[in-house]
Amino acid sequence: MQGLMMQQPLLVASLLTHAERHHGEQKIVSRRVEGDVHRYTYRQLAKRARRMANALGTLGVKRGERIGTLAWNGYRHMELYFAVSGSGSVLHTLNPRLHVDQLAYIIEHAEDRVLFFDLTFLPLIESVARRVKSPKVFVAMTDRAHMPQADDFGGMLMCYEDLIEQSDDVFEWPLLDENSASSLCYTSGTTGNPKGVLYSHRSTVLHTYAAALPDAMNCSARDVILPVVPMFHVNAWGLPYIACMVGAKLVFPGPALDGKSLYELIEQEQVTMSAGVPTVWQGLLAHVDALGATFSSMRRTVIGGAPCPTAMTDAFQNRHQVEVLHAWGMTELSPIGTICSFKAHQQSLPMPQRHALQAKQGRSLCGIDMRIVDANGDELPWDGESPGDLQVRGHWVTQQYFGADVVSPLCDGWFPTGDIATIDRDGFMQITDRSKDVIKSGGEWISSAAIENVAYLHPEVSMAVCIAARHPKWDERPLLLVVKKSGSELAGDELLSFFNGRVARWWTPDAVVFVETVPLGATGKVLKNQLRDQFGEYYLPA
Ligand code: AMP
Q1: Residue extents of the structural domains in the chain
Q2: Residue 329 Cα, ligand 1 centroid: separation in angstroms?
Q3: CATH fold of 436-535
Q4: Is the CB of 307 under 6 A from ligand 1?
């Protein structure tokens, strides 16, 4: 039909082009793994991203191919966000906290063509390189002066800055199909092997628009944004894209995520908003409190990935006048689904009621719909009391995990989140429990099945059950419940040392409780809920 609007595809590169043309002088500050602070502008970011896009072409990378990154939050990672996705290949961010075997599995499954890495991860990359066949090229994200000697390498080792220098900065971002893939992130928040979630250009741009809105992360050109949430964890909750869209100054913390380093960076760069998991904020608050200091510029912080404790909301809002935005999301959702920001009539509620409200995970962004259902799949009322399985659907919700070997996770067109929640009359969702059998510790997943599998390798273990137990620092930690074989004298420490080298160190349970039996349901399945009721507070102070 004539007279309609222009048809421009929603593309990741258009966010960078916008930042370059309309916010070209805006700053990006990065703490580097090399130990210094790097500063440049969006204009320079765009120029170097184009050089890198040309370099990828020279390396023979084709559209749709996956390019892995194992890197902290920094400007080179940001360049790859746009160079890779913008040129039509798929940015695959890898989580360095995973065990090397899991990383190898994910890299092979994604068939990563090239693997970029920060110097910190050289030993990890060397172990990975010995285990995988797919990436033929490894690129150290540094300059020639800092290039490592890597003799025992499975593939070709290149230098990031060499690639940039040798490439032209003229590159036309291709007009891709907006439904083509832009990035890939694996999640262990499901049972079985980690699963890949493939984002499209369209889903990423729509998520960026919605997540930047005043009732969501409330970002503007006047902000100085510090993404503490890693760029390897669901695109740092979309903040690199959002910063480009709104033209905010960006501050990248690199590998230093302790309270002191974060506080110094926040004050030096006059950060106005930040985002991360509760564990990181605990470290920051402890440091600021020990100094008797407060924040001179920070106005709000997005807290998600795990429930935000009320004491943390209190500390930020009452002691430091930093507004807390409690958010809920998932890798499968790009990630943001809900944010807890008040409606007009809630603004004037008494403080205790507003705090109670902020313990909820909040209301849906436009573009995401949600519902709660019972065991039969029937929808439950939004009364704030009836808990049900939380399901979502929308523009940035996955419909199928990456790889042809998996069946669709959807139920009647809805994505089952594995979270149990209530929804109140105002549409505020609150997570009350979890039906999926995983543990979230410091914002990262631990597979209880993987822990149980290791325990079963021990010859004196008759039955092993791993549950999530509440923890004052990490939100949750794995607790292992074990029935020993008859006559066994196995001690807890002995069993825990059996985990050395078999799983990532931080996956190892903090304690073993030996039990006589474990409760089983009618189908012979372990009743983990009962065990969580009994032992779920094991790590909390009495
Ligand atoms: P991930 O895919 O690693 O981002 O993890 C998503 C899962 O983390 C959700 O399904 C929830 O189980 C949990 N989660 C995320 N945000 C919150 C929150 N604010 N409160 C409670 N659980 C959360």
Answers
A1: 1-24+37-200, 436-535
A2: 6
A3: GMP Synthetase; Chain A, domain 3 (3.30.300)
A4: yes
From the CA of 445, give the closest atom in ligand 1. Answer: 3
pLDDT at position 136, please? 80
Our mutation pick for probing the ligand 1 site, out of 190, 199, 328, counting the most ligand atoms within 8 A of Cβ, is 328
Q: What is the chain's mean pLDDT, rounded?
A: 94
Site to probe by mutation for ligand 1, drawn from 431, 444, 475 as the one with most ligand atoms within 8 Å of Cβ, is 431
Nearest by Cα to 48 from 140, 134, 167: 167
- DSSP-based three-state secondary structure for 426: coil
The region of weakest confidence among 111-115, 151-155, 464-468 is: 151-155
For the domain made up of 1-24+37-200, the CATH class stated in words is alpha beta
- Helix, strand, coil abundance in the chain, percent, nearest 5: 30, 25, 40
132 CA → ligand 1 middle, Å: 30
How far is the C-alpha of 463 from the C-alpha of 452, rounded, in Å? 9
User: ∠158-159-164 over CA atoms, to 5°?
Assistant: 115
CA distance 197 to 401: 5
